[in-house]
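Recall the central idea of this unit: under ordinary conditions, the amino acid sequence of a chain determines the structure it adopts. In this exercise we apply that idea directly, starting from the sequence alone.
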Amino acid sequence: MLSNAPIIAFAATAQPDRARAFYGGTLGLKLVEESEFALVFDANGTELRVQKVEAASPAPYTSLGWAVGSIRDTVRALAGKGVAFERYPFLQQDEQGIWHSPSGARVAWFRDPDGNLLSVVEHMAAGA
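Accordingly, the structure predicted from this sequence is:
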């Protein structure tokens, strides 16, 4: 029933000015609408609605992620914009905070101003 319907991603913010600067400026997403209820960004054709809330309660797991062509370049660029990457004692991460998963994917995690956990991932090429 929903297989042909576009998906909409959601996040929450209690700090809309900081969220606008982070998602728009730091991550480079285009702000397409702002209302009293949400900031709406175009995330490469997917609508990302960052809902304005009284208090954000971030989930303890990744809530949004992006597949990137080069995780090293992406992490370097985001770090250059002040993004801090998460470190987990139970994962072996390299000097940039990148974890090499058993599948071959490379993943790094970071947080938005409200503490929502976000990630970037570079998937292993088929046949590699």
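Residues 8-122 form a domain with the 2,3-Dihydroxybiphenyl 1,2-Dioxygenase; domain 1 fold (CATH 3.10.180.10).
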